[in-house]
Amino acid sequence: VELLVVLSIVALIMGVGLATMSHSGRQFGFQAVRGELVSIIRYTRSNATTEKGVSVVVIDPLKKEIYSRARRTVGLWHFEDIDGSNNSTGAFNNNAQLQGDAAVAPYGRFGNGLMITSTGSADCGTIPILSRDAGISVECWISPTDNWPLSQRTIVDLTEGSIMLEANDSVKASYGSLAFNTAVSIIPYERWTHLMMVYEPDYTSYGGSGTLSLYINNILVGQSVGTPGVSTGKKNFSVSSSGASFKGMIDEVKVALLVETEKLKLESDISITGESGQAFTAPFGIRFNKDGRLIQPVPITLFTSPSTRDSFILEVTSDGAVRIR
What is the mean pLDDT of residues 29-35? Predict the structure, then answer.
C-alpha cells in the first residue's frame, strides 16, 4: 500500500512538472515570435535601402503567416568595358554581347555608357522568372539623341515585357497583358532621365493580380492593374533591339525580382488583430521605400496567444523604427 501511495505522489509531481514545462515551452515559443518578427522587418528595411527600391513585409492574419517580399538583383550592366569579342561585363557572369553599332563610350550617366548611333543592341542573356506571383523591377538611365525618325524604339526588352519610346516620344511600359503609356512626350533629348518599371503582385488578395507602375525620375507617372499572365522560366533580356533600335546612350541597367523570403508561420492559436482587438479581413503590408521609411502608415497590431495568456503590440513608425510593447 505504501508503495502505491509513493508511486501516486511521484506520478502527480511528474504530471504537474510536465504541464509546467509544456506551458513554459509554449510561452518561450510565443516570445520567440517577437524576435523573428522584428528580424524580418529589419531585414526587409535593410533590403530596401541596399537595393534602392520598395520592399515589403506582408502580414497575413488569415493564413497566420509573415514574410518578406524583398528585392533580389538578378541582372546589372554598367557598360564600363568591352573585350575583343564585343562583350561588356555584367554581374553574375551575365555579360552583354554588343551588336550592330552599339559601343561602350564615355560620358555615360556614371563613367562610360552604351552608345547606339543607328542600329544596335546589347544581348544580355537571360533573366529567371521564378513564379507567376513574383514581382519584377527593371530600371535604367537614358539620354536619347534628337535625330531619329519618328518610330517606336526599344529601351529594354524582357521577352514578355519592355520599356519603349513610342513614335510621339511617349513612354510605354508593358509586362504580360498589362501596359501603360504616358500618351505625351516627357523625355528630354540629350539629357539623362531615369526610368523604372515595376510589377508588384497584390499581397492583399489571393487572386494573382498585381500593379504595373512606371516611374520617371522617381516620380510615379502611371499604373495598370490586372493579371499579367506571364510564363515562368528563363527570359531573354536585351537593351535596345535590332528591329527597333534606341538611339542615344543607355546606362546602369538593372533587373531585380521581388521574391518571398524570411517566412514565419505562426502557431494556430496565435491571433493577429488591431490594437483594440478588431479583426483584419485581408493581408496588409509594411512597405519601405529606398530610404527605409514607411510609404504609408501601418495599423498598430496586437499579437495574442490564449494558450500562454500573453500578448504584445507591434508598432512601426514613419521613419521605419520598430516598437514592441
Answer: 83
**Among candidates 307, 283, 285, which has minimal Cα distance to 296?**
285
Residue 120 CA to chain centroid, in angstroms? 31
Each residue of 147-160: pLDDT tens digit? Answer: 655 678 999 999 99
Q: b or e along 72-99 (b: 16 or more beta carbons within 10 Å of the residue's beta carbon)?
A: ebbbbbbbeebeeeeebbbeeebbbbbb
User: What is the number of other CB atoms lying within 10 angstroms of the CB of residue 236?
Assistant: 13
| Lookup result for grid cell 533580389 | 72
Dihedral (CA of 272, 278, 282, 286) sign: negative
pLDDT score of 148 = 57
Q: What does the DSSP assignment read for 82-145? A: --TTSEE-BGGG--EEEEET-EEESS-SSS-EEEESSSEEEEEEEEEE--TT-EEEEEEEEEE-
**How is the chain split among helix, strand and coil, in percent rounded to 5?**
15, 45, 40
Cβ-contact 113, 102 below 8 angstroms: no
218 backbone φψ class: left, alpha, beta (φ>0; ψ -120 to 50): left
Mean pLDDT estimate for the chain: 86
3-state secondary structure labels for all residues of 182-206: CCCCCCCCCCCEEEEEEEEECCCCC
Residue 100: band (very low, low, confident or very high) from pLDDT cuts 50, 70, 90? very high
Contact between residue 241 and residue 116 where contact means Cβ atoms under 8 Å apart: no
Distance CA 321, CA 295 (A): 13
Cα–Cα distance for residue pair 195/154, rounded to 1 Å? 13
What one-character DSSP code corresponds to residue 241? -
**Residue 74 near residue 92 (C-beta atoms within 8 A):** yes
Region 34-55: what's the mean pLDDT?
Answer: 92
Mind listing the pLDDT tens digit for each residue in 116-126? 998 999 999 99
Positive or negative, the CA dihedral 162, 56, 219, 211 is: positive
Q: pLDDT class for 206, splitting at 50, 70, 90? A: confident
| pLDDT exceeds cutoff 80 at 82 | yes
